[in-house]
């Protein structure tokens, strides 16, 4: 046996690159627990307009009235009074990296944010706990009329845009965690790309949870106007604790006529994070929405990026991976809602289960009665690396007119022994051969990633297996 073979394919040692802990640098926290006073205090600290406070309080009532999801893993164990819902670590959002608080700056420097910004990005926002601490954008991008702010600042400067778009795609009544986010939201990205503006470099946001038994509830609102193009990348990490923290975000995206939007997520939360996210986009005539969705960390993840193809000839796609190891439950997938004529969608999902993990694909494709001459393709494949992991495919597909069609295919497999033998007979160790097979399995996802942009992709998706993924 070679030294290479002695190492596990998925070793968690190098997760320390992301799971290091900082000291608590909060300058303010709300008391633990969720009450009307908590919501009022968050709104007061942020000096919000009355309409936002009213929205939050209405959402809180909806949250308490709403049941847990009736599908997926049980969430009944969550005690919502155990969490801290708002944590502030800085008085201002810095536009100069040197003015970011020292501990926070050190954290993001370890994760490579400044280097990525200088080399590859048109703009970047970093959020630490509940609020953004740093935001910057290239002057030439700003001169084109692009707005890229944290969502709190966006509310203050552009309240009319908020009133037009905020909560229209994901209302508080949508689900329990949409209501929770709507009541206590803080931070996130606010982006507007004017008509005809096409950004050559991506915008990126990075989210960090540092403390245990805390919550992060960012709210992202993106409007890509007619004939505009945007590539947006987000990454997220957190240290490992024995007690879980809660991440319940909302993303609302509006894609205009002939516009193009790509939203890439690299979710590398630690295995003490509950990741419960609602992501939804609406696409106008001839527009294109692409979700590139990587789910690697978290104790439990429920996330199903959605495209509402309301415009004629609009298109949507989701390409995703989910990696589930010991103690992890990844319940992920995609939703495609066809409303306009001649619409098309494509869903490709790749899942890997190991060490007793569970990775389910949950998909919905609905081609409505007026979405004539539309087409949809759904493909979900799972690779199971041992005898005690679990995966299931749960599609919900409806075609409500006679001129459209839908394709669905799914597979569950293990490492092919013949392939393994062939590679080992050509000099590769068993571990290296397995890595090569897994990389080939993930190729439809990995080839879509902006590898040169996102901070941790080389470690997490390139699968330098040993030490890359916990």
Please outline the helices and strands.
Blueprint: H1 3-6, H2 16-19, E1 28-29, H3 36-45, H4 50-65, E2 87-88, H5 102-110, H6 113-120, E3 123-128, E4 131-137, H7 139-142, E5 147-150, H8 151-157, H9 159-165, H10 176-184, E6 189-193, E7 203-208, E8 215-216, E9 219-224, E10 229-237, E11 245-247, E12 250-255, E13 260-268, E14 273-283, E15 288-295, E16 300-303, E17 306-309, E18 315-324, E19 329-338, E20 344-353, E21 358-367, E22 375-384, E23 390-399, E24 405-414, H11 417-425, H12 430-446, H13 457-460
Parallel strand pairs: 3-7, 6-9, 7-10, 8-11, 9-12, 10-13, 11-14, 12-14, 13-15, 14-16, 14-17, 15-18, 16-19, 17-19, 18-20, 19-21, 20-22, 21-23, 22-24
Antiparallel strand pairs: 1-2, 3-4, 5-6
